[in-house]
Each structure stands twice: as structure tokens, then as C-alpha cells.
């Protein structure tokens, strides 16, 4: 993979594997941010699971796909959004209201925009998936 944005590379790898019909995809390097992003994908039922594999270097994640992702990608530049501003970003990145998920990094960790809105906290929109 090229570029030096591991999050973008991870999302591209997952998106491409899903489009090709693969059931698993390795995502490297295994960073905390990518792990947190995978946790949101799992919680929102987009993937069947994932596990970190330690290979003596940076490690990687083995992601179990379930064919539930139509499209996913990074949001660049990373926009700050208050809890009441997510709708603006939903309109920009998601195909319909309440269809898909924005992934947000907040002071309380990485979560879906639904969780952030429920908790009344804003953050940076880092990715989308539907």
C-alpha cells in the first residue's frame, strides 16, 4: 500500500476486499486508532470480528468481513464537529439519513456519531461507512 495515512490505507483495504467478495482482510499496521475504528465497525455490525496479530513488527489486524459494507473511506481533512453538527456531515458523506455511520474521534475515544450525539460530545469526523 502507498501513502503514509494508515487509517486511509486500512479503510481502502477493507473496502477493496469487500468489493472483491473476500471474507477476510489483513490490515497493517495495527495501531490503536485502527483498532478503535474496527471496534466501531464491529459494534455497528459492519464486520464479523477482528483480532490483532503480533508479528514482531508493528503487527496487523485480521478482519472478518461479512459483506455488509457498501462503501467506507476516510474523511479528509479531519473536520471538527460539535454534537449538534453531525447532520451536516451525514448529508455530505452518507447516502441517506440514519443510513450509515460517521466515525468520530472524541475526548472519550473513537465512536460512531450516534454514540457521540447521545453523549452530547463532539469530535473530529475521521471516516464514514455504509
Q: What keywords describe this structure?
A:
single chain; 130 residues; alpha+beta; 4-stranded antiparallel beta sheet; 3-stranded antiparallel beta sheet; 4 helices; globular
Q: Could you walk me through the main structural features you see in this protein, from its secondary elements to its overall organization?
A:
The protein is α+β, with helices and mostly antiparallel strands and 130 residues long. It is 32% helix and 34% strand. The protein has 4 helices and 7 strands; from the N terminus they run αβαβββαββαβ. The strands form 2 sheets. A 4-stranded antiparallel beta sheet has the order 4-7-5-6. The chain has a 3-stranded antiparallel beta sheet with strand order 1-3-2, covered by helices on one side. Strand 2 and strand 3 form a beta hairpin.
Please give the number of β-strands: 7
Structural class: alpha+beta
Largest sheet: 4 strands, antiparallel
Helix fraction, binned, reads: 25-40%
Cα end-to-end separation:
23 Å
Shape: globular
Amino acid at each position: 500500500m502507498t501513502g503514509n495515512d494508515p487509517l486511509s490505507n486500512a479503510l481502502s483495504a477493507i473496502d477493496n476486499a469487500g468489493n472483491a467478495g473476500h471474507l477476510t482482510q489483513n490490515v497493517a499496521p495495527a495501531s490503536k486508532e485502527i483498532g478503535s475504528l474496527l471496534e466501531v465497525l464491529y459494534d455497528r455490525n459492519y464486520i464479523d470480528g477482528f483480532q490483532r496479530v503480533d508479528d514482531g513488527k508493528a503487527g496487523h489486524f485480521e478482519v472478518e468481513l461479512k459483506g455488509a459494507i457498501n462503501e467506507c473511506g476516510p474523511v479528509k481533512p479531519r473536520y471538527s464537529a460539535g454534537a449538534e453538527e453531525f447532520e451536516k456531515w451525514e448529508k455530505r458523506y452518507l447516502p441517506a439519513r440514519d443510513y450509515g455511520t460517521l466515525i468520530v474521534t472524541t475526548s472519550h475515544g473513537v465512536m460512531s456519531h450516534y454514540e457521540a450525539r447521545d453523549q452530547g460530545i463532539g469530535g473530529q469526523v475521521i471516516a464514514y461507512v455504509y
